[in-house]
Amino acid sequence: MNSQTIKQDNIAQQLRFLVGQNLLSSISLILFGVYVFLALAGPYLVPYDPLESNTAIALQGPSSQHFFGTDHLGRDVFSRVIVATRLDLGIAVAAVSISFFIGTFLGALAGYYGGWYERLIGRLADIVLAFPLFVLAMGIVAVMGNSLINVIYATAIINIPFYIRIARAEVSLQRDRQYVQAALLSGNSHFRTLFFHILPNCLPNLIVQISINMGWAILNAAGLSFIGLGVRPPVAEWGILVAEGADYIISGQWWLVLFPGLVLMLAVFTFNLVGDTLRDLADPQKRK
Amino acid sequence: MLYDKIQLIIKRLMLAVPTLFGVLVISFCLTRALPGDPAVYFAGAMADEASIQHVREKLGLDRSLPYQFLAYCNNLLNGELGQSLTTGQSVTYEIKARLPASLELTLLGLFMGLLIAIPLGILAALKPNTWIDHLCRVLVTAGASTPIFFSGLFLMFVFYYLLGWSPSPIGRLDFIYLEPPHVTGFYTIDALIIGDYEVFKAAFAQLLLPASTLALCALAPIARMTRSSMITALESEYVKAAKANGISTNMRVYVYALQNASLPLLTVIGLVFGFLLGGNVLVEKVYSWPGIGSFAIDALVASDYAAIQGFVLIMAVLFVTLNLIIDILYTLFDPRMGRNE
């Protein structure tokens, strides 16, 4: 009797754990879908033109006409926040893809061939990580020129070391496996074996890193545009929207900062959660 | 034993040399990667061909790259980072004058973060899957996703506009107070040194909001690491052995486990310091804090390259130095280090 209740308790606990785990995962996946949808369809859905100003209705609080209120030029904050999704996610996707391809390529070669090449690449990654990364990104944008494309490059450069490290570690774990020997013996070149046999087996951990990196990239790009680098007003971008609202926060116009800030925060939160979910999926011990 | 440790520390110091060299190379590249001809830029807008040539020779830009690099290192050794165009002062002077403001803010932020995150992490590790553990997890995830400029503005709105508890969130000291005489450059400490509690209180009140913003940012990784390394330590054999020998719970948790869990914590503090140095720039912008971050932002807006390069280099050197200190502390505190060799 006693043991049975304990057992039931355990099952109930397990169920709750599973539901809890999946609930959070489901929420994050739904949010992820919403963001992708907004990035694709946002500009066609918004009620107002995000650039149209009308000073007669400047600095009005949230209402049924303007869900997120209006800014100092009377522009609709809701429309601006929604339209900005495409730009912010676009910057992050572009930056993360660049760092994924370059970092994985370098790291995979380092892990596969080892030797002085591995030490050189590892050293390079260490040197980039010796900088406070946001500061390095500022320096890169300042020197290469203050433009959107350079913000993307800077964000990509500061994230490359993470892919180098993961790809190197994963490939050097896989390198001596039997399937690799088999692939080489059946006449595949080293290049082909590395990129078509070994690398697909390293993908799960790299994909987790991509998701987490997306969050960082969004934060980084928004931070850079907050201090006036990259995207310029009047373009709608979350960091700029918060920066524009910052002047009004001490006079009480909170909606200019709160809504873009929350949407930005939720986006980063979503990518972090999706990353956690993917990590659990990739780790067979946790999948049980 | 001690001899082994000293040897290990020397090895760490040697390992930092190539990293520092790499940092120098990258910041040198930043100075030379300017779009167009740097000589034209540094000569100014009104320069004619002769003065551009003069600047080129003065900066050594007509020599080979390795020579330029050596000259650059030589200038750095003499503490020369060039001239700031926006303020007209040398970059070294500007950074020296502003660094204490940034350090005071960053260090207090880190300290506040540690003060909250470590107890939180310990509690979460002692009671896994209770409300405190969940609170810890929510805080950690939210902290990792909050843009630092957003949390800064949020705190400002709540504590200055709504509640009115905080003084006007602009600068280091309200204009009705006089700056304390310069000793350390930290207003709070300088005010304490001359015993002026009024100024100390004012400076501290001014610091509190920006430092809390940084603390919020530091909280997440520290709490997470405390929790996971405490859990590992509490489940270990030596804690079980201590329990079997009848050693009290407090002793086990706060002496046996915490001592061992504090080592991975040191590494995380190094990482967090890097975030904070970056986050500092954003916080300084939000609170109009006259530190090197605002200096760098002003320089960015004005395309004042020498100032930006000096800023990036100083930040990197600070970060490398701190990580080196942490490595050395690690070597000193970890009894396993130097035993096998």
From TrEMBL, chain A:
<dbReference type="Pfam" id="PF00528">
    <property type="entry name" value="BPD_transp_1"/>
</dbReference>
<feature type="domain" description="ABC transmembrane type-1">
    <location>
        <begin position="85"/>
        <end position="275"/>
    </location>
</feature>
<feature type="transmembrane region" description="Helical">
    <location>
        <begin position="252"/>
        <end position="274"/>
    </location>
</feature>
<feature type="transmembrane region" description="Helical">
    <location>
        <begin position="124"/>
        <end position="142"/>
    </location>
</feature>
<keyword id="KW-1003">Cell membrane</keyword>
<keyword id="KW-1133">Transmembrane helix</keyword>
<keyword id="KW-0813">Transport</keyword>
<keyword id="KW-0472">Membrane</keyword>
<dbReference type="GO" id="GO:0055085">
    <property type="term" value="P:transmembrane transport"/>
</dbReference>
<feature type="transmembrane region" description="Helical">
    <location>
        <begin position="206"/>
        <end position="231"/>
    </location>
</feature>
<feature type="transmembrane region" description="Helical">
    <location>
        <begin position="89"/>
        <end position="112"/>
    </location>
</feature>
<protein>
    <submittedName>
        <fullName>ABC transporter permease</fullName>
    </submittedName>
</protein>
<dbReference type="InterPro" id="IPR035906">
    <property type="entry name" value="MetI-like_sf"/>
</dbReference>
<dbReference type="GO" id="GO:0005886">
    <property type="term" value="C:plasma membrane"/>
</dbReference>
<dbReference type="InterPro" id="IPR000515">
    <property type="entry name" value="MetI-like"/>
</dbReference>
<dbReference type="InterPro" id="IPR050366">
    <property type="entry name" value="BP-dependent_transpt_permease"/>
</dbReference>
<keyword id="KW-0812">Transmembrane</keyword>
<feature type="transmembrane region" description="Helical">
    <location>
        <begin position="148"/>
        <end position="167"/>
    </location>
</feature>
<feature type="transmembrane region" description="Helical">
    <location>
        <begin position="23"/>
        <end position="46"/>
    </location>
</feature>
<comment type="similarity">
    <text>Belongs to the binding-protein-dependent transport system permease family.</text>
</comment>
From TrEMBL, chain B:
<keyword id="KW-1003">Cell membrane</keyword>
<feature type="transmembrane region" description="Helical">
    <location>
        <begin position="138"/>
        <end position="163"/>
    </location>
</feature>
<feature type="transmembrane region" description="Helical">
    <location>
        <begin position="12"/>
        <end position="34"/>
    </location>
</feature>
<dbReference type="InterPro" id="IPR045621">
    <property type="entry name" value="BPD_transp_1_N"/>
</dbReference>
<keyword id="KW-0472">Membrane</keyword>
<dbReference type="GO" id="GO:0071916">
    <property type="term" value="F:dipeptide transmembrane transporter activity"/>
</dbReference>
<dbReference type="Pfam" id="PF19300">
    <property type="entry name" value="BPD_transp_1_N"/>
</dbReference>
<keyword id="KW-0813">Transport</keyword>
<keyword id="KW-0812">Transmembrane</keyword>
<protein>
    <submittedName>
        <fullName>ABC transporter permease</fullName>
    </submittedName>
</protein>
<feature type="transmembrane region" description="Helical">
    <location>
        <begin position="105"/>
        <end position="126"/>
    </location>
</feature>
<feature type="domain" description="ABC transmembrane type-1">
    <location>
        <begin position="99"/>
        <end position="330"/>
    </location>
</feature>
<feature type="transmembrane region" description="Helical">
    <location>
        <begin position="203"/>
        <end position="223"/>
    </location>
</feature>
<dbReference type="InterPro" id="IPR000515">
    <property type="entry name" value="MetI-like"/>
</dbReference>
<feature type="transmembrane region" description="Helical">
    <location>
        <begin position="253"/>
        <end position="277"/>
    </location>
</feature>
<keyword id="KW-1133">Transmembrane helix</keyword>
<dbReference type="Pfam" id="PF00528">
    <property type="entry name" value="BPD_transp_1"/>
</dbReference>
<dbReference type="GO" id="GO:0005886">
    <property type="term" value="C:plasma membrane"/>
</dbReference>
<dbReference type="InterPro" id="IPR035906">
    <property type="entry name" value="MetI-like_sf"/>
</dbReference>
<comment type="similarity">
    <text>Belongs to the binding-protein-dependent transport system permease family. OppBC subfamily.</text>
</comment>
<feature type="transmembrane region" description="Helical">
    <location>
        <begin position="310"/>
        <end position="333"/>
    </location>
</feature>
